[in-house]
Structure formats: C-alpha cells, structure tokens
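Researcher: Please predict.
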Amino acid sequence: MSKLSAQDKFIDLSDYGRPFGKLIANSLKSTSFTPIHVTLAFGISGLIAIVCLLNGNYFSASFFIILKSIIDAADGELARLKNKPSYTGRYLDSVFDIVLNFMFFMTICYVSKTTIWFTILAFIGIQLQGTLYNYYYVILRNKSVGGDSTSKIFEYKSPKALPGESQKSVDILFKIYTLVYGVFDKAIHFLDSDAYKVKTFPNWFMTLLSIYGLGFQLLIIAVMIPLNLIEYIVPFFIVYTLLIFVLIGIRKTLFKA
C-alpha cells in the first residue's frame, strides 16, 4: 500500500534512502525479521554514529548516519510487504528518532565545544522543522485517495491496537510519543491552525518542504561533519529554522483553506 495516491506523489528530498530500504525489506520479506527488529537496527546504527563522532572518526560517523536513514526507510517497507502495519512500530520509530536527534546534537555540542544553550535551541529548531514537514505530509496522506492513514493529523488518544500487537504497548508508546512530540505539534498547529482544511498541496510545494524531512536534515549533518564544518552545524540549524515562517507564509498565501 502506497502512502499517497499517484497524483499526490512528489519528489521527497529527505527520502533518498527509500530505494535501498526497499532492497533491505525485500531481502527480509521471507525471514522471521519483523519491522520492529529493523527499527532497533536503525537505532543501533545511530548509536554507532555517535561513538564514531566521540572518537573523531568523522567519515565513519557520516556513513552510519546515512545508514540510519536507509534502515529507517526499511521498517515501514517491511511492514507493508508483510502486511503488518502497527502503531507500536510507528511510535517506536518516532521515539527513537527524537532520542537519537537529541543525542546527535549533544555529541556535536561536546566535540565542537558549542554552548549547551545554542545546542538546545538548534535541537528545538530541528524538531520544529520536522514537525512542520510531518504536519503537512500527514494532511496530504489523509486526504489522498487510497493513501495511508495510519498517522493522524491530530492525535488526542491512544489508537486501538492493530492485529498482532499489544494494546498495552500501543498505550505506553503513545504516551511517550505525545510527551516528547506534543509541544512541537502544538507549536506548529498554533502557527498554521487552518492547514488541515486545505484540499491538497501541490507536488512542488511538498518537494520544497521535504528539505525539513529528517532524512535531509541528517544528510546535511553527514556532509558537514567530514568537511570539518562541525562547528557550524548548530548555528546552521538555528538559522535554518527561520525558513519555517517562509514555508508557512507560502502555504497561507497560495493555498488558502
């Protein structure tokens, strides 16, 4: 099942790992590996990248950051191939992402001697960026004919567990998910509360928006690290966050609710 109908598909600059993710998923289709196992694997890849950063192995760190993005694409693909979507996997994936993002930035802060407050500001910025992308993307997915609706535009209560997963696990992960993402969701919704009323977003706008997707953010970091630009990662993402207002301005001006 595709996340979007054919007419709503766009070039997602943050999803460069998808072709490789599909290869991984296809190789695991007939095995006992589950999407949860793949999610755990991308978490391990992220942790290895952090260890490499701490030891000054910058090219290796970049490799494992990119590998993390590739494996991140594989868990959802495997779930679709095995026809086993799950809220457990979806929330675990998102929780891993935010935890790893925080650890990435704290590690960058440590090795680059950037101030902790600027680093926290950059982390908040990168989460707001990703939340804006996900907000518009989920709106498009929910309104796309035949698209994926596992993710909801507004999530106020724990969903009913799907076949094969525990309701308790879903409830626990949902609480963690809302705890770590809730403030960012509310902030973006405050900035553009009427976006969900828009019928659709054009492909070019979604492609532009995808520069805020996690994969593209990690690609920027992975490029800057081996180029000895690690000192500039935190200030870059602080400034990069200002594009939020440009993108929301484009939405409000060109695609009115």
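Model: The mean pLDDT is 90.
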